[in-house]
Amino acid sequence: MPPGLTQFGYALERALAQFLQSFWNEATLYQLLLVLLGAAVAFAAGRRVEPRLEARARRIQGNPDLLRLVIALMRRAGWMLLVAYLFLLRLALIAAGQPDQLVAVALILAATWLGLAVLTRLIRNRTLARLVALAGWLYVAVLVLGAEGPVTAALDYTAITVGTLRISALTIAKTALVATAVIWLALFVSHLIENRLNRSEDVSPSFKVLFTKLIRIVLVLMAGAFALTATGVDLTALTVISGAVGVGVGFGLQKVVSNFISGIIILLDRSVKPGDTIELGDTFGWIHELRARFVSVITRDGRKYLIPNEDFITQQVINWSYSDRYVRLDVDFGVSYDSDPHAVSALAIAAAKTVERVSDYKEPVCWLTAFGDSALELKLRFWITDPQNGLTNVRGQVLLALWDALKAAGVEIPFPRRDVSLREPLTVVMREPEG
């Protein structure tokens, strides 16, 4: 057996023997009984008060992150009662001059788990939040129980060497822990900056998205570099890995990089921004969010399309609200030749004005466009300011208003008529009925 592993086994055996020797005594068992009894009472009482506390916490409005933390704390009323009980129990034991080592350890572990379980609620991914809370609690437990020596030796023994870089399980654990903490802090700070920018009305939506993305990228890169440096990893030793990543980008990640660069170009030239109504191919909707790889577009039927950023660069995009939100729509209709086109135009304009969504930005107009086979063909034009609310529905409302106005005025809406000419005479033969 390798010497390092043998030493680790001896150290672990000694630590376990010392723990059992200090645990199996009358004072420690007495403390354990008090801790278990208090935990049973605290969790039983917590289940009763949690619904009331959560109902009061949900009255908080305007700050979703604070509400998430408060609700997470209220849902752990049993843990709060246990921490309070252990704190008071330790004070009582100290005042009575009794041993309190086990109670102190239980207090630290319970308080640590409560704090981590609440704070990690800021992490949106529930699985990741649980893993972070569990890893943090295990780290504190190892320190409190005095087992950091054997655990550190075991993790440091398991290692591989790549060139001049030695990577051990201890290095990976430290790097993961520090990186998770600093990257989460970086994302939290960028989220605060994003919320602050979103409340500002003087900044354009495109600049808000661009600035927050750049801030997030810079903070995450700085956090990653800090994590590697803090754990003793030489950044110059990562040149081999960075070269492999470069090869991977060159051969297999062209689309990812292309979409990322396209997203930056879209934000810089401000061709589209959140809230714009766009039409790309068969997709018509409004932009909900600009992401690093795609643009989220919500259609009128409630579907959310994730369109790659590259498509907005290489394909024709109709932005209905690029310069402003005024959009002109046309409605074609026809009336019979017996109608007065001047009067029909006035009726059509008045009918369009009765529709609520028709804007007074410009007056509706109606023009005679052609003398059709069976009708006078006219075109009614009007403006709206909310294309994101749909185009077909407002056209339908205008057509219904136009139908009602023409019916009320007695104007005929003709249907197609055709004259049939026969080249040869038609012979009609009359027969007597048989009787």
Descriptive report:
With 435 residues, the chain is of the alpha+beta class. The chain folds into four domains: 3-157, no CATH class; 175-252, no CATH class; 272-319, SH3 type barrels; 327-409, Alpha-Beta Plaits, CATH 3.30.70. It is 59% helix and 13% strand. It contains 14 helices and ten strands. The protein has helices spanning 3-23, 26-57, 64-74, 77-96, 101-119, 126-144, 148-157, 169-198, 205-230, 239-252, 254-269, 309-314, 341-353, 392-409, and strands at residues 159-162, 165-168, 277-280, 283-290, 294-299, 304-308, 318-319, 327-335, 365-371, 376-384. It has a five-stranded antiparallel sheet with strand order 6-5-4-3-7. Helix 3 (64-74) packs antiparallel against helix 5 (101-119) and helix 7 (148-157) crosses helix 8. The mean pLDDT is 77.
Reconstruct the topology from this structure.
Layout: H1 3-23, H2 26-57, H3 64-74, H4 77-96, H5 101-119, H6 126-144, H7 148-157, E1 159-162, E2 165-168, H8 169-198, H9 205-230, H10 239-252, H11 254-269, E3 277-280, E4 283-290, E5 294-299, E6 304-308, H12 309-314, E7 318-319, E8 327-335, H13 341-353, E9 365-371, E10 376-384, H14 392-409
Antiparallel strand pairs: 1-2, 3-4, 3-7, 4-5, 5-6, 8-10, 9-10
List descriptors.
435 residues; 10 strands; elongated; 13% strand; 14 helices; three-stranded antiparallel sheet; 4 domains; SH3 type barrels; alpha+beta
